[in-house]
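Structure (tokenized):
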């Protein structure tokens, strides 16, 4: 496609310079408002080009930092181009979600949570470095301010479907949200990277090597690590048919908790996780707003035409959870 000519040309030049031989034309495999992914098949293996909006292009730097400094299992970046907001990375397998739908193996979900929790812990001392790369500071003492910034966008929120009465209720809940964040902070679990879309579709699995690779890290923030776990469990309910009463659900909780052996008792960790579940709709609204502000808004709304006004939905969910509606 002509609109991708510059991407094709740049990637082909990089691949040829690195000794790769292209065996077929590039293939666009993903097109969304927040990224385009193109497959380049070579005589050796496949490589993928990912292009993002400028404000999300920090992903390339994040991947290289996590890989080189922390030896995290993330995609190997071959080259990047700041002018085109794109980077090339090596193939790392198929979607874990697809693999599990073909053959459900709960132990692989266990491994995913264990390995990602380990990556999170490895980032505890590198918040400042990640801030310098452009990762947002959504630590618990900052999160109420981020929420208030969203609440100040009154006209935007009304266009998203909130009524004046709902806006009043949501604004009134901001103090309760601040109190919940303060309660979480009392437990002193260090802030880490948080992947807002941590789920099995953002994990690649190489069955031959039995290796997992964590992808789509351009939207990470620094915040409470259990937020990623909540998203993983919520998506597991949606896409893998588990529920909160299942043994696997509770085992995934335990596996995550085991990564913080020096922090609290299990009962205290469960209390913390219940607070995370309570504030999670607010976090989801903030993450969704950040994404919307990073892309072409008309394209975004068209893409989600079957699921409009998601921010309003998240905020209403918080009102219900907090007993305000």
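Design, position by position:
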């Amino acid at each position: 496609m002509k609109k991708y000519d510059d991407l094709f040309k740049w990637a082909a030049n990089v691949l040829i310079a690195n000794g790769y031989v292209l065996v077929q034309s590039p293939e666009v495999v993903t097109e969304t408002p927040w990224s385009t992914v193109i497959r380049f098949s070579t005589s050796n293996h496949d490589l993928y080009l990912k292009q993002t909006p400028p404000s999300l292009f920090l992903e390339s730097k994040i991947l290289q930092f996590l890989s080189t400094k922390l030896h995290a299992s993330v995609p190997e970046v071959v080259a990047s181009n700041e002018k085109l907001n794109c980077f090339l990375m090596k193939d790392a397998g198929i979607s874990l979600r697809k693999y599990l739908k073909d053959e459900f193996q709960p132990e692989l979900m266990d491994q995913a949570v264990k390995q990602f929790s380990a990556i999170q812990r490895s980032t505890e001392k590198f918040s400042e470095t990640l801030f310098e790369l452009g990762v947002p500071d959504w630590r618990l003492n900052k999160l109420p301010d981020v929420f208030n910034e969203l609440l100040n966008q009154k006209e935007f929120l009304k266009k998203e479907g909130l009524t004046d009465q709902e806006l009043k209720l949501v604004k009134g809940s901001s103090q309760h949200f601040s109190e919940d964040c303060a309660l979480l902070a009392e437990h002193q679990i260090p802030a880490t990277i948080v992947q807002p879309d941590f789920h099995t579709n953002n994990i690649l699995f190489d069955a031959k090597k039995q290796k997992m690779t964590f992808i789509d890290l351009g939207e990470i923030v620094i915040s409470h690590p259990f937020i990623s776990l909540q998203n993983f469990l919520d998506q597991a309910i949606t896409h893998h048919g588990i529920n909160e009463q299942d043994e696997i659900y509770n085992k995934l909780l335990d596996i995550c908790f085991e990564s913080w052996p020096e922090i609290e008792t299990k009962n205290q960790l469960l209390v913390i996780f219940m607070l995370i579940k309570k504030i999670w709709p607010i976090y989801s609204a903030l993450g969704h707003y950040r994404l919307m502000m990073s892309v072409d808004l008309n394209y975004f709304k068209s893409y989600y035409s079957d699921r409009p006004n998601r921010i309003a939905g998240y905020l209403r969910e918080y009102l219900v959870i907090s007993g305000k509606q």
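Reviewer-requested clarification: The first helix runs from residue 5 to 17. Residues 2-90 form a domain with the Phosphorylase Kinase; domain 1 fold (CATH 3.30.200.20).
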